[in-house]
Amino acid sequence: MRQKYWLSGLCALLLAASVGAQPWQAGPDNTPGWKMMTPEERSEHIKTMHSFTSLEACQTYLKQHRDQMQQRAKSRHMRSLGRMRHDPCQQMKAMGQFKPAP
Questions:
Q1: pTM for the whole structure
Q2: Range of the domain at 36
Q3: Cβ distance 58 to 98 under 8 Å?
Q4: Where would one find the signal peptide in this protein (predicted)?
């Protein structure tokens, strides 16, 4: 019986580790203006986000993207985008997706 619980715990731990190791993914919950973007823009945004090798470049792009989506929302008489719950650039940094500076 004890072995069964130990094995279940090990499986749960391995599953949690594999989920946590997944690369950051853009989506409606973490991308400002996702619903206002065309499928092509979404694809390009994902490609761009995964191309960064530094936190600074990621943050610069994300600010530009957010400003663009804010303008789009304003032109469509929509409410503002509000605050992001999580900073994707910081999440990507924590996952080791940026190369260390030489």
A1: 0.70
A2: 26-94
A3: yes
A4: 1-21
